[in-house]
Design brief:
By secondary structure, the protein is of the alpha+beta class. It has one domain (9-162): Gcn5-related N-acetyltransferase (GNAT) (Aminopeptidase, 3-Layer(aba) Sandwich), CATH 3.40.630.30. Helix content is 31%, strand content 23%. It is built from 5 helices and 5 strands. The chain has helices at 19-32, 43-50, 103-117, 132-140, 156-162, and strands at 9-13, 58-64, 67-79, 84-94, 123-125. It has a 5-stranded mixed sheet. The longest helix is centred in the middle third of the chain and has 15 residues, at 103-117. The model has no long low-confidence stretch (mean pLDDT 91).
Length: 170
């Protein structure tokens, strides 16, 4: 852990010039979960989908003394049951040397403030089952674990089949 008490944490909205930092943050998560081989996104994928005319996500970047310390990648969400806007946090990454220094807390709080400023009223996220340190962190921050919900996903061939790639879709 790095002592950051005498250095301010700067949090800013990422720009297209930050795609390599964002990608590095994703790789930090992948290394932490021993899943580097699962990351197929490239910095160019991030540039294409996050910084065009209809960005698919927003990223807040934390820096200390101009050095990348972490990031939070999220996108707008809507709760049909609540009738309100919010955000889904896809990734929070803190560089290993800055863990335990409050960077994750600052990123989560700034993300909530950013979402609130845009009219949002909630945050949602999911956590890898084996990432117990993240689960404990989110619980300490007041995010509740939902025992009633399970995430389902379709990727690759399963998605293509669902989208009717191989049949009429009827």
């Amino acid at each position: 852990m790095v002592d950051i008490s005498n250095q301010p944490v700067e949090i800013r909205v990422a720009t297209s010039q930050d795609v390599h930092l964002i990608h590095a943050g994703l790789m930090t998560i992948a290394r932490h979960l021993d899943a580097v081989g699962k990351v197929t996104a490239t910095p160019e994928d991030l540039r294409k989908h996050g910084f065009g005319p209809q960005p698919a996500f927003t990223v807040l970047i934390a820096e200390i003394g101009g050095e990348f310390a972490g990031m939070c990648l999220f996108f707008q969400s809507f709760s049909t049951w609540r009738g309100q806007k919010g955000a889904y946090i896809q990734d929070i990454a803190v560089e290993e040397r800055f863990r335990g220094s409050g960077i994750g807390v600052a990123l989560l709080r700034n993300t909530a403030a950013h979402v609130r400023a845009g009219g949002g009223t909630y945050l949602r996220l999911s956590v890898e089952a084996k990432n117990t340190s993240a689960q404990h962190f989110y619980q300490r921050m007041g995010l509740l674990w939902s025992e009633e919900e399970r995430i389902h996903a379709a990727y690759g061939e399963a998605f293509d089949a669902l989208a009717g790639q191989h049949e009429s879709g009827v």
